[in-house]
Specification:
Layout: H1 9-27, E1 34-37, H2 52-69, E2 73-79, H3 82-95, E3 100-104, H4 118-125, E4 132-137, H5 141-152, E5 161-166, E6 172-174, E7 177-179, H6 184-197, E8 201-202
Parallel strand pairs: 1-2, 2-3, 3-4, 4-5, 5-8
Antiparallel strand pairs: 6-7
Length: 205
Amino acid sequence: EPFGLGDRVREINRRAARNAREAREVAGQPVLIAGSVGPTGRTLAPIGTIPPEAAREAFREQIGALLEGGVDLLIIETISSLDEMREAVLAAREVCDLPIVAQLTFAADGRTMAGNSPAEVVVGLADLGVAVVGANCGVGPRYTLDAVREMMAQPAAAGMRFAAQPNAGWPTQVAGRLMYPSPADYFAEFAGDAARLGVAVIGGC
């Protein structure tokens, strides 16, 4: 909506998924195509202005188009509120039974912008049957892995699988260039640590 594209959500998402399917067919690679579902960018009521029902409808519209495009799974990511994540997952469950990777974003203090801890996230998603729970984006690999480690330590995490897909930290302007604080070897070290921890989905944001 802020970019004047609110009426083209279905078209854009459907075409993106089909582009990915076509690329897979051309490449002949046995890959899975994930439909990425991001945040609304708004705070849900009663604290914010968007009713939970409206957020769920927006998620449902986006997910429906991704399904039409032929995705194999959904990655609901960069969500900063457990309440919004639950609305997104419930929207997905209303229209499909595809596997869901649910990833929230955590700050340096180990909490989401809404104040949810990793432990609260695991408990809050335990009853929704998501395939993978985890963290993405945030403020770099170390903080993301700390959040996932805390998730994995919860009793409610028994039987769950986990994801860690951090960014390379906050970029800064250096001599006119955007520079990220986490170099390649540091990111590779994170990936090894995540694998040894037992993280199932490892990547970058």
